[in-house]
Amino acid sequence: MRGYWIAIFFCLTLFNGYSQIVKSIEIIGNSTTKKKIILRELSFSIGDTISSTDTLNHIKKSENNLFNTALFNFTKVTFKDSLNNWNVCVELQERWYIWPEVIVKFQERNFAEWWKNKNLSRVDFGLHLNKLNFLGLNQTVQLNSYLGFTESFGFQYKVPYFNEKLKDGFKIAADYSTQNEVFVDIDKDEMVYIKNDSTPIQSSLKLQLEYTRRTGFYQTQFFNLRFIRLEGWDILNPFSNSYFGNNSSSLRFINFSYRYKYDRRFSQNYPLNGYFFDVQIDQFGFGNLDQSNIFVSRLLSSYRKYWKINHKYFFAAGAFLNHYFNKNTPFYLQSGLGFSNYVRGFEPYIIYGKTSGLLKSNFKTKLLKTKPFTVPLIKKIKKFSKIYFAVYWNCFLDAGYVHLPNPSTNELANQLLLGGGSGIDWVTYYDVVIRTEYSINQFGNTNFNISFVSPL
């Protein structure tokens, strides 16, 4: 009888695993990053009791949390059983943190629109000087400038944590720009510009202070305060009332926004599993309080879900909402479908309105298995020599709707918009994503586009 109970106990132990205390955490490869920044992303701490059946879950969470900091190209967490304790080893390959980036920015909203005319004079060339992981604390210092149709100069300093609890952070930023061309209206669902080839016709000054609070691993709140000043030249006078919301060809206001984000995506730059939710409230101007004489309120929200069907097939879907609570909004503050959020197949068009909604879906097939490899010619440069590369074929279907009380000549508002197509996504390290897509809409119009962000 005694042997019977011993056998049962042994089987239960095998089924439930055994529990041990985390005795030590060894970190390898963090020549720049401070240890506390790394420990912040681990789902366990020294002294925690962890079951052997839970180690795989902790490994996946911790490796993904570390990768999503954008500080490392590769992350590996290992639990080692040692004298009834866990000794954990965290192996990292840090990225290169000093980046002089040359930016090519099209005046059109996307590459496909610019390609129709291939006008190099409508290209802005910029330079960003980035110091990432400043002081080894995941801080960012950025200086940027653009030359071309838009000339701008600015800086940004971002501190993710400024206290010992590693929850609270801030960002300060400033930007001054001048434009030779200004997007002032929409006619027949296309952008209307006012431009002067020789001199700027608008200047803008933007000052920003942001406070962030990150709770746990997945929840972040953003409290954002901005001051924005626009000054228009005489050429903008005919559009002053609609564009600025007054007859003075200028606009000054305070913008306050609150955003809540819950992010449980695995690999944020190109997610294949997990989900994301955010909601944001914007207040543009406070009437007489900030002497702007505008009071515009807006709600933004999105939800995205990613399914890993198996090692080869993936599916994703997302919903986006943009709603204004005011009847009259200066054109400068209006938005809808056509920039970062759009129905694929309608890339050439802009649809603004009081309320806009968008549904996107993607089915992906992995064509090239993700596998790290070392480039022989630069194998001594460890931050670049070990790379990974993956290729996905995707099919997509989108639907969108914009409610516009007075559509005038804009025929795409107040009707359901449908678009679909197929394309190839190229994904590699340093968060590089290149998308090539061919799309068609419900009216039979086709479009080819190149983009550099994940489709969802």
TL;DR?
This protein has six helices and 26 strands. With about 450 residues, the protein is mainly beta.
How many separate domains make up the residues?
2
Q: Please tell me the overall pLDDT.
A: 88
Strand content: over 45%
Indicate the low-confidence ranges by residue numbers: 5-15
- Could you name the CATH topology of the largest domain? Porin
| Neighbour order of strands in the largest sheet | 5-6-7-8-9-12-13-14-15-16-17-20-23-24-25-26
Shape verdict: globular
Instruction: Quickly give the structural class.
Output: mainly beta
User: Number of helical segments?
Assistant: 6
CATH class annotation of the largest domain = Mainly Beta
CATH architecture name of the largest domain:
Beta Barrel
Biggest sheet, in brief? 16 strands, antiparallel
Number of strands: 26
- First-last Cα distance: 60 Å
Radius of gyration: 26 Å
Helix percent band = 10-25%
CATH superfamily of the largest domain: membrane protein fhac: a member of the omp85/tpsb transporter family
Task: Explain what the structure shows.
- The structure is a single chain.
- The protein is mainly beta.
- It folds into 2 domains: 2-94, Ubiquitin-like (UB roll) (Roll), CATH 3.10.20; 98-451, Porin.
- Helix content is 11%, strand content 53%.
- The protein has helices at residues 2-16, 35-39, 55-67, 111-117, 240-243, 382-385; strands at 19-28, 49-51, 72-82, 85-94, 98-106, 123-134, 139-147, 150-159, 168-179, 181-187, 190-195, 202-215, 219-232, 250-263, 274-284, 296-308, 313-324, 336-337, 351-352, 355-368, 373-374, 386-387, 389-403, 417-428, 432-441, 446-451.
- Strands 5-6-7-8-9-12-13-14-15-16-17-20-23-24-25-26 form a 16-stranded antiparallel sheet.
- Strand 24 (417-428) and strand 25 (432-441) form a beta hairpin.
- 24% of the residues are buried.
